[in-house]
Design goal:
With 303 residues, the chain is of the alpha/beta class. It has helices at 8-30, 45-60, 76-88, 107-113, 125-133, 141-153, 155-158, 177-186, 201-206, 258-261, 275-294, and strands spanning 4-5, 35-41, 64-70, 94-97, 166-170, 190-194, 210-213, 231-234, 238-241, 250-253, 267-268. It is built from 11 helices and 11 strands. Pathway: One-carbon metabolism; tetrahydrofolate interconversion.
Length: 303
């Protein structure tokens, strides 16, 4: 058996289309263009690539992109001052400070400085708390993308309803593991949070109808860890050497061993082309939501 591929690229393109329509409507009905401010500190090449695609897709969706590229030696006070300036700017609806920040900067303090109403990354403790409480707020982008893709996998069977499924989240990071576990609980899944100290991880995995792999270990989850027919969402973005492509070349692999998993799973996300593109589409969707909420407008349904 070979699993159905969950096409994150196509799903993300569809979400961006609804974002573009919402942006167009805001421009037409309300006379403004939602604005997303992206702050990049330093010259990390991966971060530069991510920020470039966020900027490009923001514009493609008919929104305004405000870019601040700062040198590596930027100090914390100056970065916080910039965030405060963006908080106060009425033309800025969303603020994203690209992570990781240089080591001399306390990223918690920077995130805390972001106005929770503009926190389109969903990283501010106020927004994290809202998920815990099951209250509306800005939901982190990668976890949001994981849930959308899991629903997509069950579209035919349950109409996308995840109620009652056993979900296993592998990894407990603030950015992905913890919030995605809470979101799945809010979708009425029975959630297990597994991590490096989990006893008999393989057995726990084998019980799950939905596996979210977010540990950052290349190809860790093997096909024989999976319940036949399970839905597998691979959050991993690991760059590994690919000598077969030439000397010094690399390729991207997930936290799931795709070749063996695809034989057992019912549905699986590829890497690349799975969760990654959804992360950016959800960021753009959050910018629309933040823009509407801040102005007292109804928040559109963005699918
Ligand atoms: N404040 C902040 N918010 C973030 O959301 C954030 C961040 N910092 N720092 C870094 C991580 C990583 N991240 C990705 C976004 C898109 C892809 C993506 O589109 N990946 C493509 C392939 C990209 C490639 O080829 O390298 C894919 O999976 O198909 C991946 C990773 C957002 N992050």
């Amino acid at each position: 058996m070979s699993a159905t591929l969950i096409d994150g690229k196509a799903r993300a393109a569809r979400l961006r289309e609804t974002v573009a329509r919402a942006a167009e409507k805001l421009k037409h009905d309300e006379g403004f263009e939602p604005g997303l401010a992206v702050v990049l500190v330093g010259e990390d090449p991966a971060s530069q690539v991510y920020v470039a695609s966020k900027v490009r897709l923001t514009k493609e969706c008919g929104m305004r992109s405000i870019e601040h590229i700062l040198p590596t030696d930027t100090n914390q006070a100056d970065l916080v001052a910039l965030v405060e300036k963006l908080n106060a700017d009425p033309g800025v609806d969303g603020i994203l400070v690209q992570m990781p920040l240089p080591k001399h900067i306390d990223s918690d303090a920077v995130v805390l400085a972001i106005d929770p109403a503009k926190d389109v990354d969903g990283l501010h403790p106020v927004n994290a708390g809202r998920i815990v409480l099951g209250k509306p707020g800005l939901v982190p982008c990668t976890p949001q993308g994981c849930v959308i893709l899991a629903k997509e996998a069950f579209a035919d069977k349950t109409g996308g309803d995840l109620s009652g499924f056993d979900a296993l989240v592998l990894g407990r990071s603030i950015l992905v593991g913890k919030p995605v576990a809470l979101l799945l609980q809010n979708e009425n899944c029975t959630v297990t949070m597994a991590h490096s100290r989990t006893r008999d991880l393989e057995a726990a995995c084998r019980r799950a109808d939905i596996v979210i792999a977010a540990v950052g270990r290349p190809r860790m989850v093997k096909g024989d860890w999976l319940k036949p027919g399970a839905c597998v969402i691979d959050v991993g973005i690991n760059r590994v050497p690919a000598p077969e492509k030439g000397e010094g070349k690399t390729r991207l692999v997930g936290d799931v061993d795709f070749e063996t998993a695809v034989e057992v799973a019912g549905a699986i996300t590829p890497v690349p082309g799975g969760v990654g593109p959804m992360t950016i589409a959800c960021l753009l969707a959050n910018t629309i939501r933040a823009a509407c909420k801040r102005r007292g407008l109804a928040i559109p349904e963005l699918g």
